[in-house]
Structures are given as C-alpha cells and as structure tokens.
Amino acid sequence: MPFNTVASLSHSRRALFSTLQSGSKFTNNFKAYLVDDKGKPGSFFHDVPLSLNSADRTATMVVEIPRYTQGKFEISKELPFNPIVQDTKKGKLRFVNNVFPFHGYPYNYGALPQTWEDPTTSTAENKGFFGDNDPLDVVEIGGSLGKLGQVKTVRILGALALIDDGEMDWKIIAVDALDPLAPKLVNGIKDIEKVMPAALDGLRKWFKNYKRPTGKPENAFAFGGEYLDADTAMKIVEQCHSRWSKLIQGEVDAKRKCLPQIANTTLIGTPGLTGEARPEIEEAGKERSISEEVNTVYYFKD
Fold first, then answer.
1. CB atoms within 10 A of CB 43
2. In the chain, which stretches have pLDDT less than 50?
3. Are 140 and 109 in contact (CB under 8 A)?
4. I need a surface site. Which of 5, 205, 266, 292 has the fewest CB within 10 A?
C-alpha cells in the first residue's frame, strides 16, 4: 500500500503521521486513513493532537483539500477511524465549481483536529446559531501547496463567521508556521491586509459565491462579514476544543442530532477507545479521471 508521509511539529515533540490510501481517488470507495510512525491506525478527527499553543497562537491542521483543487474531500464523521473521503450528494461525488477568478479552492483547506462545532448548543460567540457538527474549518494562506492528509502546524491569524444552511460554520484563517510569510503576519488580519493585498476580500467573495453555480443563494455571514482578529479566533478554537472534549468523553446528549463517531486509538479513558482494531483497507487503485464538466468557469456580479 502506498504511503504519503508528512511530518507535523507540535510544540513539544515531532510527531510523524502518514496517510494510507484505500481504493481509487475520485471514486466512492476512496478513503485516506491516518497511521502514526509505528504503523498504528488512528482518527484524523480525534487522534491527531490539536497542540494549541496560546503564546505562539499555533495549532495543528489536517489538510483535506489542497489549494486550486476541486474535489470536496473531508474528514468523515460517520466512518470508524474518521478517514478522509470525498463528499457526496445524492450518491454523486462532489466537486466545487470554478468561480472566476479562482480555480477550485483558493487556498489550502482543512480542519483543526480535536475541535467540534456543537450542533446541540447556541452561544453568544455564535450569535445564537448552532454549530454545524464538524471539526473547525481552517483556511491556510501560505505559499506551499498542501497534500491531502498532510498534518502540519499553523499560526492562527483570524476568523470569518460563515452562516451555512442556518448553522454557524467558522472559517479559521491561518498560515503554515514554517512558511516564509509567517514572520510577516504576526499581527494577524491587519498584517494580511498589508502583506497580501486583496487576499481577504477575494476569499470572502469566494465563500459568498462558491455555491451559486449549484443554484443556491449567496452565503451569509455573521458580524457583517468582517474578519475577526487572532485573539478572537483563538477563543473560538479553545471553545470548540472544549466542546470536543465533552464529545469524546461521551458527555453530549444528542437528542435529534447524529453525533460523530468517537472511536479512537490513543485517548485512554474515553468510551470510544479501541484495542487492536484496524480499518479494512482495499487495494489502492489508479486515480480516476474527472468529468470535463467540472472545469466550467462561472461568473457572478457582487
């Protein structure tokens, strides 16, 4: 089985993770599983440490969608071991459309592990909206092209409050801590506006319009669509990490909500801790071709 090995530097030690491919990319059978440096399987959602460092404003990111690609890959909440899979709608694989001037996703896109936007509780920080039941989304604006399943340390710079289908869907803005831009962005949002002119405005426009090619309306934002600063973003991450802690301890009463899988291989004392269980791995196949229709470009006025 092929391994795509990438390293992640936490604030205390260097942790090496790899992805193990099952099935062929761009098919319903594709899954990318997490394994550690000893070959032990784990969950991208639960077993990758967040490693939140308040002093440096750094945390761990899992890359789900590399910049400029269109496949809508995400950490599965439902499958054991939470592999990265391609999202589907009505049985059809999902690709994000090209909204001019962007091709696919404008930046590396992924999730902060060990965080959870709680769909059972509304908070003042969420302006009364409930969470979307996912790990926190993170947009990494550095210059390097990410890889699916890559685990890396990022510096948190700010946040954008997207309202998606009536739920809060925070977008944490960050930069790879090892990126040459990182030392120039220590003040977060204000520095991005100086160092990367038009980047934040372009990203907001993309989030506003990227679903319109499918016939959906523009996305809405809380806080008037303004980017919130790094300190506020850190508080959001801390809150969602606390919500995740309750989830992984089995302390959340879901009622009508379908909660994520909490199976894990490293969190001693949690009800989802597994023994020597391993995911079923299919033979890795050749990447499938994408329909030419996916390359269509769409144009919208603001």
1. 29
2. 1-14
3. yes
4. 292
**Separation between Cα atoms, residue 153 and residue 167, nearest integer Å:** 27
Both tokens of residue 249? 């301890």
Q: Does pTM top 0.85 for this prediction? A: yes
Any residues with CB less than 8 A from the CB of 274 and at least 6 apart, and which? 263, 264, 265
Say how far apart CA 10 and CA 12 lie, in whole Å. 5
Domains delineated in the chain:
54-263 (3.90.80.10)
What's the pLDDT tens digit per position in 215-252? 999 999 999 999 999 999 999 999 999 999 999 999 99
Partnered with residue 88 across adjacent β-strands are 93
Inter-residue contact 62 to 130 (CB < 8 Å):
no
Here the tokens at position 165 are 């289908």
Q: Phi and psi (nearest 5°) for 194?
A: -85, -45
- For the record, the structure tokens of 139 come out as 């947009």
pLDDT, tens digit (0-9, with 9 covering 90-100), for 102-153: 999 999 999 999 999 999 887 767 777 888 999 999 999 999 999 999 999 9
DSSP for 251-289 reads: ----TTS-PPP--BSS-TT-TTB-SS-----PPP-PPPP
